[in-house]
Amino acid sequence: MIHIQQLTFQYNTASAPIHFSDWQLPQGEQALILGASGSGKTTLLHLLGGLLNPQKGQLVVGDKDLSQLKGAQLDTYRGRNIGLVFQKPHLVNALTLEQNLLLAQYMAGLKQDKKKVEEVLSSLGLVPRKKALVHTLSLGEAQRAAIARAVLNKPKVILADEPTSSLDDENCGKVLHILQQQAQAHQATLIIATHDKRVKDIIPTHYMM
């Protein structure tokens, strides 16, 4: 689930604070964060992902108030409970696809489980590419690889930042279908930050910036 209340963030003293409207999203639901470029969509997504710390307010993701977690405790919770899909895949180029997913398990303090990696890759049609270095993946394969990494540890929440902004209509639909399918398979809450109008009709619940 997601619950934010009286949430405020400020990048520095020279910038104006960003105040976020109170919001609650039940576990397993799907929603979009909508707004123009620069409105704070990515900031909110990074707060929800534990990549930024709020100045004030309550921020519950899954079953934890992230504002109360610090350092390694926050890193561990994020690795095990929050799946992040960035605009760029941010995979380790020197490793194979399989090794990238095993690394995600290791960084979350979990047992490296090749069988589980195989299952996730199979669900996304990536088993034939598991031994490929990630820099050899096509754009579509790299996006699916990023989704595989995000769902590997069965997170409570999946957060995606502008996953369709550079895609044509056909691939936009495919990526959204994969995200929704994977979220449902893992009973995860799915939140997508976007300004892509094509996505509005597919996911009807919106949080406006």
In the CATH hierarchy, the third-tier topology of the domain at 2-90 and 153-208 is known as: Rossmann fold
Assign a percent range to the helix content.
Answer: 25-40%
The parts where pLDDT drops under 50 for at least 5 residues are none
CATH architecture of the domain at 2-90 and 153-208: 3-Layer(aba) Sandwich
Distance between the termini: 19 Å
Strand residue percentage: 15-25%
Task: Report on this structure.
The chain has 209 residues and is of the alpha/beta class. Helix 5 packs parallel to helix 6 (169-185). It has a domain at 2-90 and 153-208: Rossmann fold, CATH 3.40.50.300. Strands 1, 2, 3, 5 and 6 form a 5-stranded antiparallel beta sheet that branches. Strands 7-8-9-4-10 form a 5-stranded parallel beta sheet, sandwiched between helices. The protein is built from 6 helices and 10 strands, in the order ββββαββαβαααβαββ.
For this entry, give a set of tags:
209 residues; alpha/beta; Rossmann fold; 5-stranded antiparallel sheet; 5-stranded parallel sheet
In a few lines, what is going on in this structure?
The chain is built from six helices and ten strands. The chain has 209 residues and is an alpha/beta fold.
Task: Provide the fold topology.
Elements: E1 2-9, E2 18-20, E3 23-25, E4 30-34, H1 41-48, E5 56-61, E6 64-65, H2 71-81, E7 82-85, H3 97-107, H4 114-123, H5 139-151, E8 157-161, H6 169-185, E9 189-194, E10 206-208
Parallel strand pairs: 4-9, 4-10, 7-8, 8-9
Antiparallel strand pairs: 1-2, 1-3, 1-5, 5-6
